[in-house]
Amino acid sequence: MSNPDKLALELYNEIKDDLTEFSENDVKEYCRFLALKAITDDGNSMKLSPSPQLDQIWHYHLISTASYQKTMKILGTMIHHDPRKADDSIEVKECRYKATFKEYLDNFGESFVSRSMWPIFYPGSKRDLERKKKIKELKEFSKNSGEQLAIFVRGLNGKSGVFYLNPDTTIDELKMLMHEEDIFPINPRLVFCGRRLEDDKTLKDYNIINESMIHCTLNLRGC
User: Fold this and answer.
1) Which residues of the chain does CATH 3.10.20.90 include?
2) What tens digit of pLDDT does each residue of 132-146 get?
3) Yes or no: is domain 126-218 CATH 3.90.550.10?
């Protein structure tokens, strides 16, 4: 099997000047998607689908025929795009995207994940709408509650995010809000004063007070 990181980087170096309409990060994510399609032998079967944001780059690249042909030569296979898949139900699209997202995490890890290019749930799906509704409710509740805490969470790169919460906010709800920020991993492990925080516990359970600093690390996977 090809090394996905090496293959994606080779693609990027070859086509970056052909896709200057998009940001460097977005083109890199597109190259990772194409690398996934190639190493999973998904040129024809369409088991894996990109996010709608990545699909826009794919559409653009397809009509740049010389560049796309050059890309396929590097991959050693043809990655087809079937426009009929756009008519599939949102549930079918979500299923393909979920499979793609899993392959992405397995091959590239969490540190690469861009929220704008790889949202946690397929946009418009039931889970995505439920998540957005819950986040809105959390923000409104924290804003209108009597006691509000400014909680700092330090990410893997040393940058910190601040969240305004109430003492009864659960750790799981905090993680849901963290998913909006690119500086945090998809499956964060939160630590406060050397103690790992459990999802069903609240800030109050851990005596987390105003302006406390919580540290975020990666969840370790088994072999």
Assistant:
1) 126-218
2) 888 888 878 777 777
3) no
